[in-house]
Amino acid sequence: VFTLAILNMLNIHGLPLAVAASMGATSTAVSAFVLADHYKIARKLTAEVILLSTFFSLIVLSFITLFESHL
Predict the structure, then answer these.
(1) Rounded distance between C-alpha atoms, residue 62 and residue 65, angstroms
(2) pLDDT at 28
(3) Local structure of 60: helix, strand or coil
(4) Which of 11, 15, 26, 32 is most buried, judging by how many CB atoms fall within 10 Å of its CB?
């Protein structure tokens, strides 16, 4: 939602706004977990961050889809 607000302030509307907001809403790269697992560092924390970011990206993408015509 923060990304959406900034893009609106920059006067970006329509399809470019929807694409940029969608890209900003995508979850944390799974490659981060692969690295954490390989180096045995913060595996649980990395998995939790991926889970939370995926959850929040679903909320943001749903918001974008609902209000796509107004963007």
Answers:
(1) 5
(2) 65
(3) helix
(4) 32
Query: In whole angstroms, how large is the CA radius of gyration of the chain?
Result: 15
Nearest to 8 by CA among 57, 17, 23, 25: 17
**Residue for token pair 């045995």:** 40
Looking at residue 51, its pLDDT comes to 87
Whether 26 contacts 57, CB under 8 Å: yes
Q: Give me the pLDDT at residue 71, please.
A: 55
What's the length of the chain? 71
Which residues does 63 contact at the CB level (< 8 Å), separation at least 6? Answer: 1, 4
Distance CA 54, CA 30 (A): 10
Q: What are the start-end ranges of the E strands in the chain?
A: none
Could you report the average pLDDT of every consecutive run of 10 residues in the chain (71 residues)? 79 82 71 89 91 84 75 55
